[in-house]
Known about the structure:
Elements: H1 6-25, H2 27-41, H3 58-79, H4 90-111, H5 114-138, E1 140-142, E2 145-150, E3 157-158, H6 160-178, H7 184-203, H8 207-224, H9 228-248, H10 250-260, H11 271-283, H12 308-341, H13 345-369, H14 387-407, H15 415-425
Antiparallel strand pairs: 1-2, 2-3
Amino acid sequence: MLRAPRGNRRRSRGRSGWRERARSVGPGARRAVAELRAAAASPPRAATGTPRVAELDGGIVASAALLAGLGLVMIYSTTAPLAMGDTLPPHFLRHLAGLALAGLALGLALRLPLAFWRRLALPLWALSALLLLATLVVGVEANGARRWLALPGIDVSLQPCELARFATPLAVATLAARLRPGSGPLLAVCLALTAVPVGLLLLQPDLGSAALVALLVGAVLYVSGAPMRRLVPIGALGLAGVAAYVATRPYAMARWKGFLDPWQSAHAEGFQLVQSFVAFGRGQSFGVGLGEGLQKLRYLPEAHTDFILSVVAEELGLFGVLVVLGAFAALSVAGLRVARRARDPFASLVAFAMTALLVLPAAVNAGVVMGVLPTTGFTLPLLSFGSNSLVVCGLGLGILLRVAAVDAPPSPPTIRAEAMRRWRQR
Length: 426
């Protein structure tokens, strides 16, 4: 009896087995495969218009919503005792209006393509520099510094440093995506773009915002591929400049002394930090209860802005602080994942810059209220009172969500796996 060679028998069995499995799968799975193949063959969706809700990154949306919602609750809790005669605290209503403006800014940024921000990056940087210069001339002076521009005729003030924090990293990301990473011309131009707002901020004086702008630019340059042998000397020179600035400015030296030994000057430079320690100590693990905190009753200065995390620690305890820090950590992971997935260099750098814009000030603020860093005057993004900061956060979130939905979509599942999933659901 003639027998087919072993290899041919295996191939024939493989073919027949494949046919049997195809028959057993049934028409439902084959129809799903056909639908997926047709979708894969269709041209990709144009990068215009507003992304659908299903296309938004869930990690970014959930983290931002949690922080904004908790911030709204804590602003009410912090400011309600100071406005006992009002139905709703004025600061709460202003914060609510700031959140509404931030939502509008987020929606606008979500609708605009990245090409718009590429074209607008340098004009926005120039506008921020002009506003910083105007602040030095006609700005409102408070606590020995000029950081606000009052708009005539309406009870609204602008804080140009917030625009500078947004526009400078955006401009640097635009140039870094165009020029060769680490090249001499790129570093020279980026240093010039950074030096202008940093110098104007130091003249206000606002050392914290100046340092933050420099850190954001340095982070964008590092991610773009600039070599460490060039970035390290620039960073060392910047640290030397900060040390010289602190040594020659009495207000900065006082803050530094209050940071090094707050208990020695508990009624002077260290007062704010000591009261923050008291708030953390009273909160323990789960807090004294929402609205039951005492430090916000004029013991802790700037409780609704710079030290809102101390109020969270007192009323919600370590648990509440970990929720806040965990939300920022989740936002950081989601933003970095979007930056890594982005297909265009500019989209990747912009996603990283917007993530750093949201997370880096939060890390600094947490370090300040816990006594790890000197007092800087940073607000806690999305939680602290301040419409200027909320609007800039809304722009950053909108751009990040736009990149996630249009320029960095998640990897699609294989046709076979997705077809089987659809068939099982039927």
